[in-house]
Amino acid sequence: MLKEKINREVVAVENFQLVTKNDYAYHRLKELIVTCELAPGETIQQSALAAKIGVSTTPLREAIRRLGGEGLIDLAAHKNTKVSGVSADEARHLLEVRRALEPLASQLAAERRTEEDIVQIKKCLSRLEPVYRDIDALQAHREFHQAIYTASKNPILIEELGRLWAKSDRYRVIALDKKDISPERESQIKAEHQQIVEAIVDGDGDSAHAITLLHVSRSLGSQAVNLLD
């Protein structure tokens, strides 16, 4: 047991966490796909990509398998391994499901949140920046919404929304690349986030649901549908 622990391959990552090389390869490859550094439809050259990420091909293959299961990589046996494509139809389908599930998560969060949840949601709100600035701002946006999902106390809903968010991030990046956000919309987004938090803190599930539905309907994912049509 001790020998196995000593021999386990680990790499250091931010926040002083230790993860296996498999996990590191997974998160790094996912980042490359989500940010479109690996473009939709691009063939994955495993040797070159492993060198770029800084791992061997073994953890990279495991990362490819995992991301294939999430729909971000096309693992069709008769084709080269490729980054999954994007389309207006998929963007629309993702938006339809988000419009159903995200307001539900906010409503349940308002009904079930604990004091610890409120502290975490407010902490994440304080770190938000306009999402168009960089990938860190996009990550802060995800953490804010994830804190709300967590407060819903519904593990199935939390898991499904996590999957949706990963697939939707590519469409957010596409919208950010092709469309500027006006100062007016930036202020609107900030106000919507604040209103969602206020409704959750007040235990007002109906308001949390309504504001979140409006927020999703105006989101970058919604803009991506129009851009790709």
TrEMBL record:
<dbReference type="Pfam" id="PF00392">
    <property type="entry name" value="GntR"/>
</dbReference>
<dbReference type="InterPro" id="IPR036388">
    <property type="entry name" value="WH-like_DNA-bd_sf"/>
</dbReference>
<dbReference type="InterPro" id="IPR008920">
    <property type="entry name" value="TF_FadR/GntR_C"/>
</dbReference>
<dbReference type="Pfam" id="PF07729">
    <property type="entry name" value="FCD"/>
</dbReference>
<keyword id="KW-0804">Transcription</keyword>
<feature type="domain" description="HTH gntR-type">
    <location>
        <begin position="19"/>
        <end position="86"/>
    </location>
</feature>
<dbReference type="GO" id="GO:0003677">
    <property type="term" value="F:DNA binding"/>
</dbReference>
<keyword id="KW-0238">DNA-binding</keyword>
<protein>
    <submittedName>
        <fullName>GntR family transcriptional regulator</fullName>
    </submittedName>
</protein>
<dbReference type="InterPro" id="IPR011711">
    <property type="entry name" value="GntR_C"/>
</dbReference>
<keyword id="KW-0805">Transcription regulation</keyword>
<dbReference type="InterPro" id="IPR036390">
    <property type="entry name" value="WH_DNA-bd_sf"/>
</dbReference>
<dbReference type="GO" id="GO:0003700">
    <property type="term" value="F:DNA-binding transcription factor activity"/>
</dbReference>
<dbReference type="InterPro" id="IPR000524">
    <property type="entry name" value="Tscrpt_reg_HTH_GntR"/>
</dbReference>
